[in-house]
C-alpha cells in the first residue's frame, strides 16, 4: 500500500526554503507513530532538511545526482518508479515529500494521511489538490490550537473511492 503523508495548510502549502512553516508537536508524534518500522520515500531536498536520518525507518531518496552520498542504511534511486521497486511488496510504504514527489505519486497512491493546518501561509512547496471525485475522507480528527500548537489542525485520512 502506498500512502502519502503530509501536513499542508488551507492553500496546500507544505514549506518554504526547505523547511516547515509551522511547529506542531502532536503532528510530529503522529508522523513518527505511522511511519516507524516502514520504508519512507522522499526527494533529496526533503532528506537534506533532516538533521540526520529518522530512526526506525528505511529512507529511500530520489535524486538525479550521480554518486549522491548518504549514510549507511539509506537507499538512493533516480526515479519514483525505482523507489517503489526497492520497497518490500505487501507492506505500507510512505511518501513523505516534497511537493514534486507528492505530485508524481498522488495518482498511484492508495491512501493519504493529511494533517490540514487551518491557516494560509506563503510557501514554495505545495501538496497537490485532492480530487474529491477520486478521494474520500474516511477519518477526521480536529485539534484546536493550544500552548504547544499555534494553529488549529485536522488529521484527515483519505482513500480512493
Automatic annotation (TrEMBL):
Describe the location of the DHFR domain by residue ranges: 1-160
What pathway does the annotation place this protein in?
A: Cofactor biosynthesis; tetrahydrofolate biosynthesis; 5,6,7,8-tetrahydrofolate from 7,8-dihydrofolate: step 1/1
The protein's UniProt keywords, in alphabetical order, are:
NADP, One-carbon metabolism, Oxidoreductase
Q: Matching InterPro entries, A to Z?
A: DHFR (IPR012259), DHFR-like_dom_sf (IPR024072), DHFR_dom (IPR001796)
* KW Transport (keyword) present: no
Q: Which CDD domains match?
A: DHFR
**Looking at its record, which EC class is this enzyme?**
oxidoreductase
Q: What is the lineage of its organism?
A: Bacteria, Pseudomonadati, Bacteroidota, Flavobacteriia, Flavobacteriales
Q: What does this protein do?
A: Key enzyme in folate metabolism. Catalyzes an essential reaction for de novo glycine and purine synthesis, and for DNA precursor synthesis.
Instruction: Tell me which PANTHER family the record gives.
Output: DIHYDROFOLATE REDUCTASE
Q: Does the keyword Oxidoreductase apply?
A: yes
User: Listed GO molecular functions?
Assistant: dihydrofolate reductase activity
Name used for this protein in its record = Dihydrofolate reductase
UniProt EC number: 1.5.1.3
Q: State the family named in the UniProt similarity comment for this chain.
A: Belongs to the dihydrofolate reductase family.
Which reaction does this chain catalyze?
(6S)-5,6,7,8-tetrahydrofolate + NADP(+) = 7,8-dihydrofolate + NADPH + H(+)
Amino acid at each position: 500500500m502506498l500512502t502519502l503523508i503530509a501536513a499542508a495548510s488551507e492553500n496546500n502549502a507544505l514549506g518554504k526554503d526547505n523547511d516547515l512553516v509551522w511547529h506542531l508537536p502532536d503532528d510530529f508524534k503522529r508522523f513518527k507513530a505511522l511511519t516507524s518500522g516502514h520504508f519512507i520515500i522522499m526527494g533529496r531536498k526533503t532528506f537534506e532538511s533532516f538533521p540526520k536520518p529518522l530512526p526506525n525507518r528505511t529512507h529511500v531518496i530520489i535524486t538525479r545526482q550521480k554518486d549522491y552520498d548518504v549514510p549507511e542504511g539509506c537507499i538512493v534511486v533516480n526515479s519514483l518508479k525505482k523507489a517503489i521497486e526497492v520497497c518490500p511488496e505487501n507492506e505500507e510504504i510512505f511518501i513523505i515529500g516534497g511537493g514534486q514527489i507528492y505530485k508524481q505519486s498522488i495518482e498511484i497512491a492508495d491512501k493519504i494521511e493529511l494533517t490540514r493546518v487551518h491557516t494560509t501561509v506563503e510557501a514554495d512547496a505545495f501538496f497537490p489538490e485532492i480530487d474529491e471525485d477520486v478521494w474520500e475522507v474516511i477519518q477526521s480528527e480536529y485539534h484546536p490550537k493550544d500552548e504547544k500548537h499555534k494553529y488549529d489542525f485536522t488529521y484527515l485520512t483519505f482513500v480512493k473511492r
